From TrEMBL:
Keywords: Lysosome, Signal. It comes from Pan troglodytes. PANTHER family: BETA-GLUCURONIDASE. Belongs to the glycosyl hydrolase 2 family. It holds the Pfam family Glyco_hydro_2_N. Residues 183-484 form the Glycoside hydrolase family 2 catalytic domain. One of its GO terms (cellular component) is lysosome. This is GUSB isoform 4. The gene is GUSB. GO terms for molecular function: hydrolase activity, hydrolyzing O-glycosyl compounds.
Amino acid sequence: MARGSAVAWAALGPLLWGCALGLQGGMLYPQESPSRECKELDGLWSFRADFSDNRRRGFEEQWYRRPLWESGPTMDMPVPSSFNDISQDWRLRHFVGWVWYEREVILPERWTQDLRTRVVLRIGSAHSYAIVWVNGVDTLEHEGGYLPFEADISNLVQVQLTAQTSLGPVSDFYTLPVGIRTVAVTKSQFLINGKPFYFHGVNKHEDADIRGKGFDWPLLVKDFNLLRWLGANAFRTSHYPYAEEVMQMCDRYGIVVIDECPGVGLALPQFFNNVSLHHHMQVMEEVVRRDKNHPAVVMWSVANEPASHLESAGYYLKMVIAHTKALDPSRPVTFVSNSNYAADKGAPYVDVICLNSYYSWYHDYGHLELIQLQLATQFENWYKKYQKPIIQSEYGAETIAGFHQDPPLMFTEEYQKSLLEQYHLGLDQKRRKYVVGELIWNFADFMTEQSPTRVLGNKKGIFTRQRQPKSAAFLLRERYWKIANETRYPHSVAKSQCLENSPFT
């Protein structure tokens, strides 16, 4: 069962896999090796959304002791995918509530007969609260989307269990690709392997037509080819960790990652409480445990646009950042702020200042001539107070592909292009001083909940949702390749091997 409006049962697809011994630490990407086998459960699942108002936990458990089809109609649902755009049922489009997924699985006989085999069910992602039953038994629960969770189900699928505890240890091993690099931060630079690194890249969302947030290999390869065409060397996983396959591609292609947890929406004082703090720390543990072995990940981000001007937010962010540093002392930690520099209570605890600002869009809209002054003032104020390197982590403008107007007006391709040009002039004044990066919002248009301010989703992408370029994509491509050619860390277009392609060499 998955609860949420965005991701279905498994954004990556659940996997059922057996191995000779339980993993030490667990939560590692399931891959086959001489000591382990994997059985992917991608494909069609039986599905039903519960539109009733009286769902009770006890009734749910009683209901699930029999097949889903016996209790009412079901529909086919592909996994991985978001369920929202799969059917023509308007109720599913914005549904938030309990949904059921069910599939019958036939296991290899050796998994069920050989007591030396440990059988583990691993869910790549389910948003945002999940309860999993195996053979009618409530097996595991998980709160929070975008991250994997797992359970040992050997005792539910194996026979003759009496001798299981006396078998002794059995070897279990697998291989991981390795990348070696160092990361450090000074008061004005971000260093990779001891040399200054400038982030020129994008913010992304895992989103596309029909499949929603569901993982899709052709789409992933297309996106990385576009990143390479663009000359980008980095992206931020805004506002949640991305699929493990995405992180592996970043290692392979040499794309540097700011890895962000699902800490978005911390906008009110009541959110900064001990219950939220405990859960936030637990989520950071899951993020670090999953992604710590990826050399592409160079910084953790613990939140996006929290209400960091609040006194309670200062302590909250201090504790989350300190906890993250204890989990991984080797990487810097940040959060993404849109607060006033003088009021931000979390900024003293980060290693790098990440700023979101939308001059001439949400503020002084239409006045492109103000951007350079506003941007210079922003950077100077933040740097004077905190003496830390700064990344422009978001900027951009909504653009409907094919809309044109000269002089530029909002929502046209000319306006987006002109806005970016003004930002770039302002960034160039500071990027050889203490500004260490720029990430456009957004790589591609993405779907959102409908509202009067959204025209079929967020249209700030430099590519459409179908991955076709707007005019601003060509402007950004020219800029990024110019920056790359000015540095010793160009993003190669020729080869695909990680260590030959990456800024880590």
